[in-house]
Specification:
Rossmann fold, DNA polymerase, domain 1, six-stranded parallel sheet, 2 domains, 9 helices, 44% helix, single chain, alpha/beta, 238 residues
Length: 238
Amino acid sequence: MTLRAIIFDVDGTLAETEEAHRHAFNEAFRDAGLDWRWDRDLYAELLAVAGGRERLRHYIARHRPDANLQESDIARLHHAKTAIYQGFITEGRIELRPGVEQILRTARKGGLRLAIATTTTRGNVLGLLAATLGTDSARWFEVIGAGEDSPAKKPDPGVYRHVVAALDMAPFDCLAIEDSAIGLAAASGAGIPTLVAPSVYTRGETFTGAAAVVEDLAAVTLADLRRWHAAATRPVTA
């Protein structure tokens, strides 16, 4: 059992993006003439649903059942929100979590392969990487599995299975880095040991089955990652 690849989640893991997503949703609602506003408590609840469009559908069904919105309206709202969020990235309003860049660079030097498994859009991923690590940084990742690659969102393991298949690697030779319980469930469901570094919105969640849980990534070394991976119990896949 040898660690050969690290697979990163994006939102909450590479960067604390969720506040930016929340503000982008609220701006999109305002621009559409809707009096909806997602505060932090409500957004923390909504994060139990992975995927921005799915989250929006869930909110409407649960909190705005009388809203006369068609699927095309939801798609337009989400498109507007995505454009606002990408503007935040371009403006430099989102930074990597402390320690992330160091892990990426030391992993590359140590011969580990890198990949991404996320439910956000590929455009959001590429924009974040370019703004924080430089325009060539997407090439650091052999595979970027994004929301477009797996119809079912986390905790479904589909996006992780897609990434592992594209890497042509055994799941247990990888280590996932996640920030949430649903991300942990997705990676574990694909048979991948998982390190959890809770984000602002996921602190207090239960991470049973994680290879390790750390408060932040700033002090994590490549030796730590190898040690946690070596000690991990093989996940039970669905």
